[in-house]
Amino acid sequence: MLLVLCGSALVAGLILSESSLGTAAAVLPVFVLLAGVNSPLVFPRSIDSLEAQRRSAADGRPVVFWRPGCKYCIRLRIRLGRSARRLHWVNIWRDPAGAATVRAANDGNETVPTVFAAGRPHVNPTAAWVREQLSRSV
């Protein structure tokens, strides 16, 4: 919401200063796109890593560690479509334990998306592979 408000203020400033209307018209969609990409609405509700691991142990569904603004996370989410809601999502920027889990799996790097399926990490897997793991779950 903040990105949309900032973009709107910038566009209003451009229009009031009598700058190019084309520039103003191009700026607002960029801010709206940035807001959409960073929106929590794009991803299912995140939970903490301990809860995700507990749920995964119970139902066998993979855990996806992600962070806002990551183009690879967004690509995976979009390609998964509706099946993404069946996964357990952990935002590593909101969960220090989740970030530590990702670093432990990736030689100290916070490389996302990192998907844990059957207790094993997989970095930047394809959506088809993730769907296959979902089909194996309870």
TrEMBL record:
| Coiled-coil blocks | none
Cite the SUPFAM superfamilies for this sequence.
Thioredoxin-like
InterPro entries linked: Glutaredoxin, Thioredoxin-like_sf
One Pfam family assigned to this protein is Glutaredoxin
Check the record and name the Gene3D superfamilies matching this protein. Glutaredoxin (3.40.30.10)
Q: Where is the Glutaredoxin domain?
A: 63-120
**Would you tell me the protein name for this molecule?**
Membrane protein
Name its species.
Answer: Streptomyces hiroshimensis
